[in-house]
Design a protein that fits this description.
This protein is an alpha+beta fold and about 270 residues long. It is built from ten helices and six strands, in the order ββββββαααααααααα. It is about 50% helix and about 10% strand.
């Protein structure tokens, strides 16, 4: 099996002066300056623009083992103490996780407070918007307590990288709501993280069927096909994602997909000027 390029991490930049050397677990090397670090990702400034990498795929920075931040921490650590939750959340990501901890325990009022605080810090955080939407549906009787419990417990397990534990929660959701897009997608993500690519493809294909215009979903499916060694299907899915990104005018994602297609030696249609 090939080492997958995770999510939107498709572009690898050349070396430039004064840069840090970031090594991914795949062995890929990126030269740039870390301009932002959160408990979930790092943002790297390169000559080709700013790139985002999930913490879980970063191995080292400048020859030192990479140590991610824990929720609520804002400085890049030399050593990382054990986190405790819920804690005083100081950014949107920390608020999201703190809210999920409360929600997974059935403390929905406390969860709502954390989610709203996170939304104030980052009004565009779609995960927080989704969490609040579930709580709102619960209040209106449009979602059951069982559904909400499984959503939040499964999501928290994913965030904590407990992928095997997450799957049964989302499978339970599918017994309640068989066409639930997010449940199919999240099961696919969990299986992908466990390197069970056939099962990941099965659920991600269903997610794409449920939402054919989801460019990110098609791009991620292409990524999983590539990890599974199915290059031709990877190209097909990525080209479909590319067309959707181009239609939406998403120039950054276009560049990333084009770089990924180039990485797997695919013939990419001529790009319009970006």
């Amino acid at each position: 099996m090939k080492e997958a390029i995770v999510l939107c991490v498709f572009l690898f930049a050349p070396v430039f002066a004064g840069a840090e050397t970031i090594v991914l677990k795949s062995g890929k090397i990126i030269s740039g300056t870390i301009s932002e670090q959160t408990p979930e990702y790092i943002k790297v400034k390169t000559e080709n623009g700013e790139l985002y990498f999930e913490n879980k795929i970063v191995r080292e920075v400048d020859g030192r083992e990479f140590k991610p931040l824990f929720p609520g921490q804002t400085a890049r650590p030399e050593s990382v103490p054990e986190p405790s939750f819920p804690a005083a959340a100081t950014d949107a990501t920390a608020c999201l996780k703190a809210g999920m901890v409360y929600a997974s325990e059935g403390k929905f009022d406390e969860a709502e407070t954390e989610f709203k605080k996170g939304l104030e810090l980052n009004p565009s955080e779609y995960n927080i918007k989704g969490a609040l939407s579930i709580l709102d549906d619960l209040k209106k009787g449009l979602a059951t307590r069982e559904y909400a419990d499984n959503v939040f417990k499964g999501s928290l397990a994913l965030v904590n990288e407990q992928y095997g534990d997450a799957i049964p929660y989302f499978e339970k959701i599918l017994t309640i709501k068989p066409e639930d897009l997010d449940a199919h997608y999240n099961i696919g993500v969990a299986y992908y993280s466990l390197k069970n690519y056939p099962k990941a493809i099965e659920f991600l294909k269903k997610a794409v069927e449920l939402k054919p215009d989801d460019a990110e979903g098609r791009a991620f499916l292409g990524n999983v096909y590539y990890a599974a060694g199915q290059d031709e299907k990877a190209r097909e899915s990525l080209l479909a994602a590319r067309a959707l990104f181009e239609q939406a005018g998403d120039k950054e994602s276009l560049r990333e997909v084009d770089a990924f297609l180039s990485e797997i030696s695919s013939a990419v249609p001529p790009s319009k000027p970006l």
